[in-house]
Amino acid sequence: MQVRLYYPKVEKKLAVIWEQNCQLWKSAIQNDKENGEIRQDPDAEETVSMFWQMFSGTSYEESFFQGSDTQNISRSVHFLYYVLKA
User: In 8, 20, 46, 82, which residue has its Cα 20 to 30 A from 39's Cα atom?
Assistant: First the structure.
């Protein structure tokens, strides 16, 4: 990312944001497991990784073409949720 060329120590700041984001996702997934909303067997960290890769990968890829299509991202996230659903 070119931002690191212009902002000192931005990598550390981004790492903190990334970790906070992951913790929020893990917390939500654990909560959903406890409430019976999603299956118990998926690993929380792997699930966080899948959601994040889907979101960031789709956003990145689409940025080269028509720009981010939020409807497409929404469909993908909802599909993954459907797969996890109890």
Answer: 20
Q: pLDDT 10s per residue in the chain (86 long)?
A: 677 778 888 889 888 998 999 999 999 999 999 999 999 999 999 999 888 888 788 777 877 777 778 888 888 888 988 998 97
Write out the DSSP string of 10-71. HHHHHHHHHHHHHHHHHHHHHHHHHTTSB-S-S-HHHHHHHHHHHHHHHHHHHHTTT---HH
Inter-residue contact 30 to 40 (CB < 8 Å): no
Phi, psi of 38 (to 5 degrees): -120, 165
The conformational region for residue 67 under phi > 0 = left, psi -120 to 50 = alpha, else beta, is left
Query: The whole model's pTM is what?
Result: 0.72
Residue 4: strand, helix, or coil: helix
